[in-house]
Every structure is written in structure tokens, then in C-alpha cells.
Design a protein that fits this description.
- By secondary structure, the chain is α/β, with parallel strands linked by helices.
- It has one domain: Rossmann fold.
- Helix content is 46%, strand content 15%.
- Strands 3-2-1-4-5-6-7 form a 7-stranded parallel β-sheet, with helices on both faces.
- α1 crosses α6.
- The longest helix is centred in the middle third of the chain and has 29 residues.
- 38% of the residues are buried.
Length: 248
């Protein structure tokens, strides 16, 4: 992938890894558009990076998701890179949590169904443009779940499986399909308590960009490479190791 001259949509681009991506992509590309649920966070990102185009959207709402894609098709017909980065997580015990089903619905809608909707609506547009790329952001937890996250693991594993399938189904359409699997990263996502092994956002995104330049279809960042190998050779050990990691 060329890292310049693109028109890029990054979901969840106003904080954390998404904001770091925005900082890097804004430097050499035609346009970087970010969406997010919080207008306040979007405005803050715009203050840091005035070149950004911001648009509020709650991706868990299918109507807002559709409205976003209609706006993109009208205002940015040259879109050639879609990065499905937005995600939510609930760190709870499945048993004894009253609103657990609502949490499950929210995570499924945001982490899995929203990327599928965006791909469905925007893929025809990506096909029309040159050097187009679909980039789905997942996690090393697609290989080994962390028990503190009852739904996040499952929704990202579903997106991982979908991405593998879709890469094969779409291989002759002219759009590259990439998955980026991040390890724990020091972002607001952890609510001030990231695991001790978490890496910095700039390092995480730098490894992602290196993989994109090399044309790697499944980019495993940081210790995700090691987790992938261990989960194949010793899945029980990998499970125990992931779930023994202490927060910060």
C-alpha cells in the first residue's frame, strides 16, 4: 500500500490508536476523515489536526451508519481506504450483571456488524477507485480470549474470520483486504489502567504502517506474533498466560 495520496476514512479516529493513525496519515494524504460518537473528542482531534474532516456517528445505530456512508459517497467519491477501527468493550462478569444482554448487543453492533455494514455500503465505491484498501483492526485476542472481556474477544474473532473469508471472496475485485492485529496498547480504551505489557500508540501504528507498505495481509503487531505461535503450539498455556497478565 502506498501511504500517500489517499482519501481515508478511519472509524473511531478521535482517540487512542485511531487518533495516532490520523496523525500519521494526515501528513501525506489527500484527505483523512474520522468518525466517532463523541462530538467533544472529534472537536479536540480537529484542534490538534486542523486538516482532519470530522463527522459524528454512532456506528452501533444502523441508521447513522447508513447516513455516514451516504455522506461519504456524496462528499468524498474518491475514498479509497476504509479503516474499521472503532470498538467498544465492557469489562464485566457475565453472571450477575443485570444489563449484560444490552452490553452484548452494543459490542456486537459496534465491533462486528458496523464494519460489515460499512464494507457492504462502501465497497462498490472502493472498487471504482485505484489503489483501494480495506483495513480491519482486530487484536491478538482473536487467538486466545481474555476472560475479563466476555464479548470483545468474540466480536473481534468474528471480524477476523469474516476478514479471512472476504479476502478470498474479493480477491479479484482490485481491493486489498488487510487485517491488523494489535496487542495491548496504552490508550484511553483501558480507562487509565492498561496492562503492564501495553506498548505505546506510536510504536503500534509504526509497525502497522511498515506492514502496510510491505503488503502483508495479516499484520501482527508486537507480541501478537508470539501469541499467534504459542496459541497454535500450546493453546492452554497461551490461555493461562493471557489471563495471568496484571493490569497496570
Amino acid at each position: 500500500m502506498k501511504l500517500s495520496g489517499n482519501t481515508i476514512l478511519i472509524t473511531g479516529g478521535s482517540s487512542g490508536i485511531g487518533l495516532e493513525m490520523s496523525k500519521r496519515f494526515i501528513q501525506n494524504n489527500n484527505k483523512v476523515i474520522i468518525c466517532g460518537r463523541s462530538q467533544e473528542k472529534l472537536n479536540a482531534a480537529k484542534e490538534q489536526l486542523p486538516q482532519l474532516e470530522i463527522v459524528p456517528c454512532d456506528l452501533s445505530d444502523k441508521k447513522q451508519c447508513r447516513a455516514l456512508t451516504n455522506w461519504i459517497m456524496e462528499k468524498h467519491p474518491d475514498l479509497n481506504v476504509l479503516i474499521n477501527n472503532a470498538a467498544v468493550v465492557n469489562k464485566v462478569n457475565f453472571l450477575g450483571t443485570d444489563d449484560i444482554l444490552e452490553m452484548a448487543e452494543q459490542e456486537t453492533e459496534t465491533n462486528f456488524l458496523a464494519p460489515i455494514r460499512l464494507i457492504h455500503f462502501l465497497y462498490p465505491q472502493l472498487q471504482k477507485n485505484k489503489d483501494s484498501h480495506l483495513i480491519n483492526i482486530t487484536t491478538g485476542l482473536v487467538y486466545t480470549p481474555r476472560v475479563a472481556y466476555p464479548f470483545y474477544n468474540a466480536t473481534k474473532a468474528a471480524l477476523h474470520s469474516f476478514t479471512q473469508m472476504f479476502r478470498e471472496q474479493s480477491k479479484n475485485t482490485g481491493v486489498s483486504v488487510v487485517e491488523v492485529m494489535f496487542p495491548a496498547v496504552k490508550t484511553p480504551w483501558h480507562k487509565g489502567n492498561p496492562p503492564k505489557i501495553a506498548i505505546a500508540t506510536d510504536r503500534a501504528v509504526e509497525e502497522m504502517l511498515t506492514g502496510l507498505e510491505k503488503g502483508i495481509p495479516e499484520i501482527r503487531v508486537g507480541r501478537t506474533k508470539l501469541l499467534y505461535s504459542i496459541s497454535r503450539l500450546a493453546p492452554k498455556f497461551a490461555f493461562n498466560k493471557v489471563n495471568s497478565l496484571a493490569d497496570g
